[in-house]
Amino acid sequence: MLGDGAVAVAHPNIALVKYWGKRDERLILPCTDSLSMTLDIFPTTTHVQLTDQNTQDAVLTDGAVARGEMARRITAFLDVIRERAGRTERAMVETRNTVPLGAGLASSASGFAALALAATDAYGLSLEPVALSRLARRGSGSAARSIFGGFVLWHSGASDDPDPDLASYAEPLAHAHLDLALVAVLVETGPKPVSSREAMRRTAMTSPLFPDWLATTRGDVTAMREALAREDIATVGEIAERNALGLHRTMETAVPPVRYLTPTSHRVLEGVRDMRARGLPAWATMDAGPNVKVLCGGGDAQRVAGELRKQSGCAAVVARSGPGAVLRKKVR
Length: 332
Ligand code: PMV
Prior knowledge:
Layout: E1 2-10, E2 13-17, E3 22-24, E4 29-30, E5 34-38, E6 44-51, E7 58-61, E8 64-65, H1 68-85, E9 90-97, H2 107-122, H3 129-139, H4 143-146, E10 151-154, H5 164-167, E11 170-172, E12 180-186, H6 196-206, H7 210-229, H8 233-252, H9 263-277, E13 283-286, E14 292-297, H10 301-312, E15 315-319, E16 326-331
Parallel strand pairs: 7-9
Antiparallel strand pairs: 1-6, 1-16, 2-5, 3-4, 5-10, 6-9, 7-8, 10-11, 12-14, 12-15, 13-14
Helix pairs in contact: 1-2, 2-3, 7-8, 9-10
EC number: 4.1.1.33
GO molecular function: diphosphomevalonate decarboxylase activity
Domain Diphosphomevalonate decarboxylase-like N-terminal: 10-160
């Protein structure tokens, strides 16, 4: 028989100061704080329906049965929720994305945020948003930030905290109101060759630049918070671009190296530098994939997107600040 169910929607977020490196793989505790903007594009909608007839969870992603690593991660995540709820039913999970998966467009952030909200509701756990962000973190680190809309800070928590799980959560930066737009340039939308999880592990273990990366990122979080508070878009853009380039340097110096950026990504980066030289303020950020996201003022977004399309030949989608995860429907 079918049991309780729920539907939730969450949006991806793009980090202005990145999370890259875990100090605990099981609890997904990051080495540093990170700071992001939740977007208003590419939402994920997830329906979780409990059933006492199946012996395994059944997961459909965009109509296809999820297998392998993704299916294993979702079941492990549902196990955490079942244990907390003291329940044993299996779940049928159906997820619809509007973004290509595994291409560094933050689909795991929106995916695990929507799943955290829908599954906790279906299993009868009612968590307030900060607690939900701690839980979403266990699915995919960056998902902790997609629980909230706007600018969001994810606290790493002190490593000597008696309860490190409790200490690592996301919260919205209530006083940050900068009119920032993000133009996502879709360089490639196929799945990436190396998962971000593997790339992160390899970088932390082998890149000689990793310790410096952590120290720089800690300073970048503080400077970014200050720049957001004074609505200083140039400093926000400069820190974000520098931080993303630093992230990619750590990957490229890992053994073996992880190279996500393609010749087209580099051409887009060149185009962004060129726009700046011509007096059009724009800055780039990149995650674990070849796609380039370009930050600019809200009023410049359409012009920046138009120039990027012309210059790269790629599709470019304009995003603004978006909402946190919401519950759409309860099924009882
Ligand atoms: O949440 P994960 O494990 O997919 O890691 C995401 C890491 C980056 O996107 C590269 C950076 C970030 O802070 O989102």
